[in-house]
Amino acid sequence: MADGLTGWLHVGRRKSLASFNHASIGIGSAPHLGAEMFMSAAKVSLTHVPYRGSSAQAISALIAGDVAMFFVGNSSAVFHVQAGTVRGFAVTSPTWINSLPDISTFAESGLPGVDNSIWFAVLAPSRTPPQIVQTARRYRQSGGRPRLPEYACGPRVRSAVKHARATRGVSGEGLHQIPQPH
After folding, report:
1. Distance (Å, rounded) from C-alpha 165 to C-alpha 53?
2. Dihedrals φ, ψ of 49, to 5°?
3. 52: which residues sit within 8 A by CB, 6+ positions away?
4. CATH of domain 1-118
5. What's the half-sphere exposure (Cβ side, CA atoms, 13 Å) at 121?
6. pLDDT of res. 170
7. d(CA 137, CA 37)
8. Rounded to 5°, angle at Cα 29 from 23 and 30
């Protein structure tokens, strides 16, 4: 097995990366865009293999050896990396992730242009009953705070959440943070 991302690329180039592929959870998804950033920074081309739905199918394909790589969120990756069913070569954030301290960043691996840090907003249809919206607002106003598991996010996500709390939402985008009740 190749040692780290650089070794993986070296083996891939020797075997012709055209035969290598990458999984995603669909065209335009965060894993797909992460792979596109990686290919652009590494100046390689991999075949895109989109799977429908969640990352479960794509991770299963990676474990089975049907695909060579998959850009996946921390909450899905940590368990598999720690269990040894997959290998983590690099993280797309500019800093290490506490739950995966042995995995370097892409920048440390020689590919500084790969940064696929994302955040999520909780949205509801405009027809959501007012009592549900009011319950969520009351929770937020009472000081309720979502608990972010250590494995699920890195420093940039924590910083974004802290900023959103301090500014009472992402007002520039017309969005307001409404934590989910526990």
Report:
1. 31
2. -120, 95
3. 25, 26
4. 3.40.190.10
5. 12
6. 47
7. 38
8. 90
For all residues of the chain together, what is the average pLDDT? Answer: 76
Q: Quickly state the pLDDT bin for 85 (edges 50, 70, 90).
A: very high
CA distance 140 to 102: 36
Q: For the chain, where do the domains classified as CATH 3.40.190.10 start and end?
A: 1-118
Q: What is the pLDDT of residues 125-154, one digit of tens each?
A: 888 888 888 887 777 676 665 555 555 555
The identity of residue 116, as a single letter, is N
The DSSP bridge partners found for residue 69 are 22
Query: What does pTM read for this prediction?
Result: 0.63
Distance (Å) of CA 148 to CA 53, 78, 116? 23, 15, 19
Q: Where are the alpha helices (DSSP H) in the chain?
A: 4-15, 30-42, 55-64, 74-83, 130-141, 155-166
Amino acid, single-letter form, for residue 75: S
Question: CA–CA separation, 61 vs 50, rounded Å?
Answer: 11
Phi first, then psi: give them for residue 136, nearest 5 degrees. -65, -40
